[in-house]
Amino acid sequence: MCGIVGYTGKNQAINYLLDGLAALEYRGYDSAGVAIISPSRHLHVVKCQGRVEALRQRCDDANLVGSCGIGHTRWATHGAPADRNAHPHTDCSGSIAIVHNGIIENFEELRRSLRAEGHEFKSETDSEVIAHLFGDAWNGPAKGDMVGALRNTVARLEGSWAIAVICSDVPDQIVVTRCGSPLVVASTEDGAYAASDVIPLSSVTDHVVQLEDGDIALLEKDGGITVYDASGGEVTEPKGLDIDWDASMATLGGHSDFMGKEIAEQPEAIERLLKDRLGKHGIEMDELRMTREELSQVDRVYIIGCGTSYNVGLIAKTLIEHWARIFVSVEFASEFNYADVLVTDHTLCLIITQSGETADTLAAARRLKGMGCKIFAITNVLGSSAAREADGTLYVQAGPEVAVASTKAYTAQMVASALVALRLAFANGSMTPCDVEMIYRELRQVPDLIREIFNRSWQDKQAVPIFQDATSALYLGRGTNSTTAYEGALKMKEIAYVHAEAYPAGEMKHGPIALIEPGFPVLAVVPDDHVHDKTVSNIMESIARGAKVVAVATDGDEEVAQLCEQVLWVPKMDEYIVPIVAVVHLQMLARYVAKAKGLDVDKPRNLAKSVTVE
Ligand code: M6R
Fold first, then answer.
1. How do the domains of the chain map onto residue ranges?
2. Sheet holding 3-9, edge to edge
3. Which CATH topology does 3-243 take?
4. For 258-444, which CATH superfamily applies?
């Protein structure tokens, strides 16, 4: 949540700041702002509620000139989305500006004591205390020392943060730090850059420096970056990261929205992930960093995730239990952190997170690590916190996912989970090399099967009127496809604002069936699998009460075609592959419904892509 950028160098800062914020807008879009130091050493702040486009307009009007500045795009936590709560925040003198991503947990107490000392606050945010604390340090114990002043400031904070600070007394320097929120910096011939993640930087460099928690970095106009660790020592070789995403991957490239683009990218993403994975020892996965013997001893798996990544976990559970015969527990990270945990000596923890920065997921992983579990991350974002903290990481290589609603990461993470399940199954002897090879070959069919779903997108368009004016809908499925229903309903809720409730089809009669009245929309996932006939019975129960049923069914299923208002067809395939393919219809359906309602499919209200607060 929240994105921050910074630049000092020979160019005008405003260009990178605005483009960088636009690239980070998926992290939050309640308000945006920049602070720039003018050639006459004045600090200018322009900020407003709303999107970066609105800020761009205000900056044009203000004609901001200067080559050192910071910027912020906000997802509101403390204080309503409003101009006064937008970052950057300034100290009382108006010469220091800060941007912050994270939460300052002790801000009430700090604000009380700062007020008592005479500081005046202009916002309701937790972040503003940072500007005042920095101001006190700058004018007091750390006079004239940006690094010292920031160290002094963070010593008083509790919570999580990535912070960037500028001060008009030193017009060419930016000082940044992080603790629990992501931040990368980069040095180029044109100057020094900072950003919450690599996406804005991919247009200026292919190499970034990753800061560790507690590091403080001083960025200077000539591109120089000096990193100090938490103890104050200079880090002579800070950890670098090569960016293999080129900037165009995070642009629309002819698509009308990122969600549409990312849905379309799924086949290639899965092809990349599966390439060269089959070796003579089954699935090649050195990333696990566990020997075959260690893998064979795994007797319990905890899978942790949130939202869409949690849904991937449900599929992963089915695959690991079915193929590797190991007990799996899937947990919402936010719940897990406050629940009892029962680990064995050989429990493996699998964290699934597209961004690799979800605070709840990271907290859960740290908890399990503290209990001695091996942590394996399935993530998309290179160098993310999850990747850095896990014992092993499998990158799903889906490329930047910009739309808030996860699509290509979901299907790629499912394929990654299937690979992990096969690796475990081979290691503990539950599957022979021949079985593994057979499933791998099925997985290789997925990209073309998804392409075939794209050819059928007209079917999703036809179903739009059934959902467009609905306030409520039921999504039903059984077995692995109850998860397809969960994921389809999540997409419908988050981008089309239809209250779609997903339920295991057989459970419907225990309550939700009371919702059904004539015309009520029901979406049933009923492919040709071992629970097909049971799900058909549930469809009949819905129709008997007047529901309008749209089904996802396998080609040639005349019975379902006769019963339902409409069918979204999928080709015949192995039932364990169906969830990866069938969900694509539901992604497209949600997108079409949202578009028909005139909604912004990339930036749905109240949400942010990367949820870095607990
Ligand atoms: O980056 P993560 O995978 O950890 O994010 C988890 C959820 O916040 C995320 O999947 C969210 O539910 C998406 N908006 C769903 O489309």
1. 3-243, 258-444, 454-596
2. 43-49, 31-37, 68-74, 3-9, 191-195, 184-188, 207-210, 240-242
3. Glutamine Phosphoribosylpyrophosphate, subunit 1, domain 1 (3.60.20)
4. Glucose-6-phosphate isomerase like protein; domain 1 (3.40.50.10490)
- The residues, ordered by sequence, that sit 6+ positions from 287 with a Cβ below 8 Å of its Cβ are 392, 393, 394, 395
The dihedral over CA atoms of 529, 445, 330, 473, expressed in degrees to the nearest 10, equals -60
What DSSP element (H or E) covers 75? none
Which of 199, 309, 330, 360 gets mutated to test ligand 1 (max ligand atoms within 8 A of its CB)? Answer: 309
3-class secondary-structure state, position 12: coil
The segments of the chain whose pLDDT lies below 70 read 245-248
Ligand 1 binding residues, C-beta < 6 A: 306-309, 353-355, 358, 361, 404-406, 490, 494, 610-611
Task: Answer whether 131's CB lies under 8 Å from 87's CB.
Answer: no
Nearest to 470 by CA among 529, 521, 413: 521
Q: Locate tokens 């429990």: which residue?
A: 347
Distance between Cα 405 and ligand 1 center (Å):
7
Residues 282, 288 contacting (CB under 8 angstroms): no
The residue among 202, 206, 258, 577 whose CA lies nearest residue 403 is 258
Residue 26, SS3 per DSSP: helix
Beta bridge partners of 378: 352, 394
d(CA 365, CA 371): 10
Class of domain 454-596 as given by CATH: alpha beta
Same fold yes or no, 3-243 and 454-596: no
The pick from 197, 352, 354, 394 for probing ligand 1's pocket by mutation, whose C-beta has the most ligand atoms within 8 angstroms, reads 354
CA of 608 to the centre of ligand 1 (A): 9
CA distances (Å), 397 to each of 400, 466, 609, in order? 9, 35, 18
pTM: 0.85
Helix segments in 292-331, DSSP class H: 292-297, 307-319
H or E element at residue 272: helix 266-274
pLDDT per position as a tens digit, 104-151: 999 999 999 999 999 999 999 999 999 999 999 999 989 999 999 999
**By the 8 A CB rule, do 403 and 262 touch?**
yes
CB of 191 closer than 8 Å to CB of 223: yes
Calculate ∠ Cα 444-450-453, nearest 5°. 150
Enter the tokens of residue 144: 């004239």
Q: How far is CA 573 from CA 122, 184, 245, 560, in A?
A: 60, 43, 33, 17
The predicted pLDDT at position 242 comes to: 86
Residue 558 CA from chain centroid, whole number: 40
What pLDDT digit, counting tens, does each position of 53-97 carry?
999 999 999 989 999 999 999 988 888 889 899 999 999 999 999
